[in-house]
Amino acid sequence: MAAVDFRIEVPDAVLADLHSRLARSRFSPPSDEREWQAGTDPDYLRDLVTYWVDRYDWRQREGELNALPQHTAEVGGHRLHFLHFHAAPAEGAERPLALILSHGWPSSFVEMLPLAARLADPARYGADPVDAFDVVVPSLPGFLYSELPDEPLTRAAMARILHALMTDVLGYRGYGAFGGDIGGAVSGWMAALYPDEVVGLHLIHPPFPDDFDPPPSPAEEAFLEAERAYDETDGGYSAIMGTRPDTIAAALIDSPAGLAAWIIDKYRDWSDCHGDLESRFDRDTLLTIVTLYWVTGSIASSFRQYYDWSHNRPRPVISVPTAVTLSAEPVFSGYPRELAERCANLQHWSAPGRGGHFMPLEEPELLATELRSFFRPLRHS
Cβ(115)–Cβ(107) under 8 Å? Predict the structure, then answer.
């Protein structure tokens, strides 16, 4: 399972086809006079597609990505793509702790790049160099350049794959795990399955108990009711991806404008942007993420973990030290600490009130500070 170097090399013909499809995009009228009320705003989408065709430079972004330490390895018979940032040397420092950063949906390794840079080379950003990590950023199975396994794509299956990457491929005897959304759930499974190797777990989306014994407290019940109410307005995307993924994938894999609409809607809705998408993300970064989904044709396989949801089993209690830096997404408003304490050895809890679903991209400095602080005493584990 040796790692090999990897470069992104999109053929000219693929880019020419992409530009041709974008130039012929059709746009629907809005369903509501209030912008973004019914999903991705058609006027914004038209403007973004125009920028994609006329001003976005994929070759420049491809070159920037290829300057990063990208690799692939065969794990369980299937290709896994990842980036491996070695810690900047610090005089007198012990061997750096390894840390794996796992993204969610609809995301990619791009989300983790600002955070990874700060963690691997803290001195460059004004922090103590002894806090440097060896940072590993995988593309989750089914995303971009990572292939699906033969088994159902459960959180536990992904945890086993990523653990094999860290131990069998990269040779780390112990490591820390960080993630949000799917990546957070996978990280939680890594901590639960491999407590002797995972020295600590850091999440932006708290772990959730599989049962309520004892029954929910008033604070927990209030949160659960609020979550159910939120899902009534936000759950359409997951309902179709979990029940009819091939139907929506057929549209998205054929229309780059449609693909952008499907992804961009969540970047606006789930980030801490207060309705102003580009106050958090520049267009080039957004289009790099969407273009990666397009050129890899991986939008359908990214849905697999939704479709295979029923194969997940209850996760064991997480015994390793666990930290939460709570996302400022509306769905987590009022999330009580005691809910996370039901299922994890919670050692740190903070709710900074900023940074949403894509916090490593939105608030990398805040998150880097939290991660350094939490893992500092665990480096000797």
Answer: no
Mean pLDDT, all residues of the chain: 96
Q: What is the pLDDT of residues 312-355, one digit of tens each?
A: 999 999 999 999 999 999 999 889 999 999 999 999 999 999 99
CA distance 191 to 229: 31
Residue-wise pLDDT for 239-284, tens only, equals 999 999 999 999 999 999 999 999 999 999 999 999 999 999 999 9
Split at pLDDT 50, 70, 90, the class of 235 is confident
Average pLDDT of the residues in 42-62: 98
Per-residue CA distances from 298 to 106, 140, 158, 249 (Å) = 11, 11, 17, 9
Helix axes 12-23, 283-296, angle to 10 degrees: 110
**Of the candidates 319, 337, 323, the residue with the CA atom closest to the CA atom of residue 371:** 323
Helix axes 256-270, 245-252, angle to 10 degrees: 110
Please tell me the distance from the alpha carbon of residue 53 to that of residue 49, in angstroms, as a whole number: 6
Q: How many CB atoms lie within 10 A of CB 225?
A: 12
CATH superfamily of 4-378: Alpha/Beta hydrolase fold, catalytic domain (3.40.50.1820)
pTM over 0.90: yes
Q: Which amino acid is at 117?
A: A
In angstroms, the first-to-last Cα distance of the chain is 26
The amino acid occupying position 20 is: S
Residue 231, both tokens = 């899902």
State the CB neighbour count (10 A cutoff) for residue 65: 17
Residue carrying the six token digits 């001195």: 123
Q: What ranges in the chain are assigned the alpha helix state H? A: 12-23, 42-54, 58-66, 113-120, 155-164, 181-193, 218-234, 236-243, 245-252, 256-270, 283-296, 299-302, 304-307, 337-341, 359-362, 364-375
Cα angle, residue 27 at apex, residues 24 and 31 outer, rounded to 5°: 170
Q: Where along the chain do its domains lie?
A: 4-378
For the chain, percent of residues with pLDDT exceeding 90: 91
User: Across the strands, what pairs with 345?
Assistant: 321
CA–CA distance, 318 with 148 (Å, rounded to integer):
26
pLDDT tens digits, one per residue of 94-147: 789 999 999 999 999 999 999 999 999 999 999 999 999 999 999 999 999 999
